[in-house]
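Quick one, tokens below. Sequence please?
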């Protein structure tokens, strides 16, 4: 898999806050949104967080709680980082032509795409992963990879970064990916301090995927 990161000796490359936009759809996975946003949100001078839904109404997660978006499809905006979570509603979202078209259009103006878990299925359906290295939730690996065989899928990977396309295995792995992106955009020291502030043990080795053997990987 392709991986790119800065070293502690490199100077910080942030000249302005990066805008992180999290996509919500009905029955999204709560941790796959809240986990990465927690990491980015611990660096308020470097990252601005925004939550998006198609119509701007509160959206219910698969765990039950709802989140209220602060922007919707009628708003004109650009993102540096677009976060696409997975969830039990992903299969229905795949059939939402308006949503998929929005992803295609929005990602023309987005620098980094971060798909967590089965969110990779949405990114793949929109053609954003074509020719790129990617991974997804291992419990749903065969289903997601069957959607887009032209993607270079990794059956054993906690997370991947291939250019501006970033994917994570799912759930807590989304936090590992967000920290890896912080290391890439700023430096690894900042990522490690962020993980420590969150009291989170960062899995910073993308090949460390202990859950893959429990599911489909042979």
């Amino acid at each position: 898999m392709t991986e790119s990161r800065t070293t502690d000796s490199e100077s910080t490359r942030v000249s302005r806050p990066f805008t992180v936009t999290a996509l919500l759809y009905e029955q999204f996975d709560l941790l796959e949104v809240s986990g990465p946003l927690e990491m980015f949100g611990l660096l308020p001078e470097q990252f601005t967080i925004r939550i998006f839904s198609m119509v701007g109404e509160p959206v219910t997660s698969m765990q039950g709680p709802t989140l209220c978006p602060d922007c919707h499809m009628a708003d004109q905006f650009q993102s540096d980082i677009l976060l696409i979570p997975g969830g039990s509603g992903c299969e229905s979202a795949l059939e939402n032509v308006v949503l998929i078209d929005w992803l295609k259009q929005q990602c023309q103006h987005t620098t980094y795409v971060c798909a967590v878990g089965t969110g990779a299925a949405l990114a793949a359906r929109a053609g954003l992963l074509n020719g790129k290295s990617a991974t997804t939730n291992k419990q749903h690996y065969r289903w997601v990879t069957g959607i887009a065989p032209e993607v270079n899928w990794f059956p054993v990977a906690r997370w991947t970064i291939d250019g501006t396309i970033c994917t994570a295995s799912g759930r807590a792995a989304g936090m590992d990916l967000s920290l890896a992106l912080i290391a890439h955009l700023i430096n690894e020291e900042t990522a490690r301090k962020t993980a420590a502030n969150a009291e989170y043990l960062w899995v910073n080795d993308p090949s460390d995927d202990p859950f893959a053997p429990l599911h489909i990987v042979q």
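Residues 4-12 have pLDDT under 50 and may be disordered. Helices lie at 30-41, 90-94, 97-106, 119-125, 141-147, 173-185, 188-197.
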